[in-house]
Amino acid sequence: MKQYHLPTKILLFSIITGILAGSAVTVYVLLSQAFTTLLFLGHDIQRGDNDLPVLYLYAIPILSILFVNWMIKRDNSVREYGVAEIAQAVNEGKFNISIKSVILKMIASSISLASGFNVGNEGPSAAIGAMIAYHLNRLFKLPAKFIQLILSVGASSGIAAVFVSPITGITFALENIAYSLLNRLVGPIILGATIAFAIAYQFLTPLIFDYSIGKYFDYDYIEASLLFIPVMVISLYIYFGLKKYILHFINRLIMNHFGQKYRDTIFAIIGGLVIGTILLYAPYAAFSGHQMVEDLINDKINIPIIWIGIIIILRVIGTAVSIYSNAVGGLFLPLMSIGALVGYGFAEISSQYLGLDIQAYAFAAIGASVFMGVVMRLPLTALVLSLEVTYDYNVITATAITLVLTGFLADKQFNIQKLKANEIDR
Fold first, then answer.
1. Do 134 and 174 belong together in one domain?
2. Of the four, 146, 198, 216, 323, which is 20 to 30 A from 329 by CA?
3. Residue 233 belongs to domain with CATH number
4. What torsion, rounded to 10 degrees, do the Cα atoms 202, 206, 211, 217 define?
5. What pTM value is reported for the model?
């Protein structure tokens, strides 16, 4: 078989793309944090530091999302796009990316995130990286056949930077490049390898890195992961059903009373009102969910069971209206936050009433990876993310089993398509 060699220019291109994308995403994340501090006058809303006037809490998300919608009308590339969409648009000559578009996207997404909308920063980070790669390629003039690779280099650089996780970034790009292949084959591969590991672990000794803290394996987590599967399927029922009902109801109401012309503006105002209400009564259910996931998987908070259910519902509603309001951002982190809450609640109930020796923070990490991986159809990325975040066999093994089997059942029931932030039933 003839060997295939990549052009040397691609290696140099990758190095420069990594430098530029890493720098741009770092600026973007810091900008988002600065905007949050500025908009809320230094108050840490999510931590309960909130003595701002009620009208102010409503004004911030409403005015912010109206401004973001105004930016999108002036430059449609500011809107949230997936990497595959960008590649297709570039190939068809329908997508013109400029440095101005990259800067505007960073500003629009930073404002969306900072004002409390339930969107993540990973989608814009991937898109910013892809845009930079596309623009940089004008200097390198690589063949058109490499466009998917070129954009994926940028996207993976953006994801690796925003999660500070290189392997997660690489895996994310691979699942986008070879999606049709991985979609069919990766589930059985993950399941088979994980089960083989669980059996071999009982009799064989793995290669040990003495400083690792994650080599201990407890079979209670396999039993718990099997019980967790129906819980995740029910959670997906709630997520898809509630989201569809909310969006279709509000959309029909707006179209009947205002028509298509004012649809985006009215939806932006409704979205701002919803987020303002969440900021007022349950601020922990607002924003991207990054802080929530970090707190849950590190056992920094203890949420009563009833509040877990309420926050899950609020985060589903917040995510739905945020995307429909044209908030610029991804779904990765909001979905992880919902899954983390489901996993945390499941473990609390299981340990108290079923006698399972499992930790709530561990199942928060499992739920975060599984929920995101199933809804976005990124199973390999979800598994690798759980690996890079925890380095814990109990989390990784339970994630793999729950992820594949829940994904199989959910796909049969919901016919999930590969999800992008801007794919909405209009």
1. yes
2. 146
3. 1.10.3080.10
4. -20
5. 0.86
Mapping DSSP to helix (H, G, I), strand (E, B) and coil, where does residue 260 land? coil
User: Which residues form the domain of 254?
Assistant: 182-414
pLDDT digits (tens, 9 = 90+) for 249-303: 887 878 777 777 788 888 899 999 999 999 999 988 999 998 899 999 998 888 8
Domain-ending residue, one of 180, 199, 217: 180
> Does a structural domain hold residue 103?
yes
Tell me the C-alpha distance between 288 and 85, whole Å.
23
Report whether 115 contacts 64 (CB < 8 A): yes
Tell which residue, 196, 167, 183, has the closest CA to residue 407: 183
Q: Which two tokens stand for residue 205?
A: 């000794």
Instruction: Classify residue 314: in a domain, yes or no.
Output: yes
Tokens of 63: 């005015």
CA distance 209 to 220: 24
**What distance in Å separates the CA atoms of residue 410 and residue 234, rounded to the nearest whole number?**
10
Distance, CA of 109 to CA of 114 (rounded, Å): 8
Q: Are 315 and 334 in contact (CB under 8 A)?
A: yes
Integer-rounded Cα radius of gyration of the chain? 22
| Cα–Cα distance, 82 to 350 (Å, whole number) | 38
Q: Is the pLDDT of residue 15 over 70?
A: yes
